[in-house]
Amino acid sequence: MPSLALPHPNTHLLRLSDLMLLLVAMVWGSSYGVAKGALAFYPVLGFLALRFSVTFGLLMPALLRADAKQRRDALVCGLPLGGLMLAIFLCETFGVALTQASNAAFLISLCVVFTPFVEWLLLGRRPTRAMFGFAAVSLLGAGMLSGASGEGLPGRLGLGDGLMLAAALLRAVTVCMTSKLSRDRHAPALALTAVQSGVIGLGSLGLALLSPDGLPALPGDAAFWSASIYLILGCTVFAFFAQNWALKHSLPSRVSLLMGSEPAFGALFAVLWLGESLSPLAWAGGTLIVLATLWTSMRRG
Length: 301
Description:
The chain contains 12 helices and no strands. It has about 300 residues and is mostly helical.
């Protein structure tokens, strides 16, 4: 997260950025439940191929508008990062299909806690002592959440929850690799996202075509298409723009606090919209994860 010095922020812009960040947190939090609904109509690989191929098409003009050096930088950074993101979305989407959407929203937020330790491994930056405590609290919360879901026992993750933890770890790796690969490059953000989306879309399509079941015909259900449009336009195009705009007009501590509300929105959406149920133990585990994530974000911010 970039460190922004705003000693005297404009009050109107600060409030507007808060609203934008809350909307992003709500949209991203709801994405797990929406994706779970779409996966009832279409398999994971085909769904990812559709979602990110369309996203690539929408962002292609940004890549074409970039000059030759910017496009080269976008490709140099975007191809390996797109490969990492393909692995993230495979773990994340299969994980959503195999666990509750509320669990997915809580567990994916652990990437914030994992990031300092991945930085230590990849970039040689040792985390502070407090980070070890935050990690212990978050892992305790993950164990409570998974054990209460009925998918596993405390201390023993089910497959869906395990895939979400793998996705969170891969997100942390991607954060570090993005910092490393983009250090001396100047690819426009939308152009870089276009390349990454293309890698995810083509990779998912290739895996789908190689799978034994192949790629089935697209469903005609309105629920599937409305979910797909929401994920493409809301969770990718709008959320990306809104977050980047808000980062220019807010303070790091406020950004961390507001974006840390994403898993709570995800759990509430899953309970209210999908009818999922969480036991008191699961709510307690999710709360520990959110607190550990917020503490980590605030300390690093």
